[in-house]
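User: ok so my PI wants both of these folded by tonight, can you help

Assistant: No problem, let's get them done. Here's the first:
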Amino acid sequence: MELVVIGTKYNYFLAFFSFIIFVFFYIQADAYVIPGPHLLELMIEKLGRGKSLLISQKLSLYDVSPEKNIIELRETLKYNFPEEFRSEIQSENAKRIYVFSLGAALTVIDNKIVSNTKTRFDCYKDVFLYRSRILLQNRVSLLGVDTSVSSLGRFQDKIAYVIGAEYPDKSVSQIWLDKNTFQPIRWIIIDKDNKSNKDVLEIRYGDWKQTHKAWYPMHIEFYHNDILVREIHVDKIKVNPSFSEELFDIEHLKSVYLNLSSVEKDKDDSQGLSDIQKTIKEFKKLYE
């Protein structure tokens, strides 16, 4: 009888040991993380293969100064894939045009060139604009995302792929993709030039909607050091509209709105200002 009991205990031990081995290998297999470049490819495929997008949206800017003003504007976006983008804002007092094309940028307010640079706020559109894995990989690498690093993380009760960091490291720039849909849900951009102070811009993408096989987020939030400073609510999406190439031709725009002195003046006036302050200053010009 004792031998039977010992044999039964041995069988239980063997079964338990086998279960532990199975769980270990299952976790190991499930923990495999897709490499960063392939994740970007899957993300692009999920967004769709359209040629262009026309977006209508409401842009809200939250002033972080003591006045705590809220600026609300209507904005129209034109995406001409894979490397051309145009934003237009028409207020009661002025019109703002921002164009990004082939890596160059230009901002025009009230028919005057006010800037030929871009800020981190302008980067939110890059995950939609570059419908080429190589172009997107090069672009996010320039913005500090190390695509050779990928891991699994959790954000707002969702499992996500993290490109650019080993979760839960938040000290480096990184892009988060929903594990099931491969849609971007989060982009953390670290200002490497700011050595003394924390300077983190976090972009969150939500409320994804499909329109004619193209996916786009209806709600985008911008957090600077965990404070909400900017918000986008999309109203309308049109897939594959036709655009004139002149709309994205920066050299053509320079010939139309030539005012290089104002660009130099803008550089002088903006010395020492953060991305947040520069953005608020620029958009206030629409109300002056």
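One down. Here's the second:
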Amino acid sequence: MKLIAGTALALTLSTTSVLAAGDGTCAAGKTLTDGTLTIATGNPAYYPWVMNDAPESGEGFEAAVAYAIADKMGFSQDNVTWVRTSFDEAIQPGAKNFDFNMQQYSITPEREEMVDFSLPYYTSAMAVLTTQNVVDGGAEATLDSLKGLKWGGVATTTAIPMLKDIIQPTDEPLLYNDNADVNAAIMAGQIDAAIYDLPTALYLSAVVVEGGTLLGQFPPEQSESPDQFGLLMEQGNPLKECVDAAITELTESGELAAIEAQWLSEATGVPVIK
């Protein structure tokens, strides 16, 4: 997993710190409720991040990662409580009703001014979601061919800066309030395409967007600033060191990669955009 700049030092956490995360002493007295780890997700939470909108099952990539982190911090599954928040409300500064939140939050400098993030637990390729009508109309998976498409996206996501910096479309992208509006715009023909992380794009093309298909993908290593997801926490949360130690241990042991392989297996047949 490729890590953001500045995290290499964090990965040199001492053995004592990592062990403290595992035996539960690191988190003692630092959670909202003593002896309980409160984790937030979306309402609803979507496949493949959470299966069947049931994070307590531990099924789906983020649900599985959450329980693996909890275990490393000394919390059994019975000592984990789930709450729901909207995506935007959790980013706002101030007190939180969770210890950490997992909703595919990209780590950005702007957000770090309001909240804290853990080390990244996932580095995502970005993919272009469109419809078969656009593909049949001659669109190809090249940067030049993408410039002339009508684009849309959610104003507050990292897809818009990536769209403007990498694709540089001829026309300004249309901005929407949420992903549901973007998907509806694609199906209505108001826009030709939008950018999502690859797992989400695969799901939307198969289940949500009628006639949906993926035009291509930008692998993380081909992006100047790969989209990396971190656990979101209240700024100054003392639990951060424990969470980072748990993620470090999961990364070094290969457990995190195994969870990613199980729930986010490599997509085949999606061309690379060059």
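Residues 10-124+226-263 form a domain with the D-Maltodextrin-Binding Protein; domain 2 fold (CATH 3.40.190.10). Residues 1-20 have pLDDT under 50 and may be disordered. Good luck tonight!
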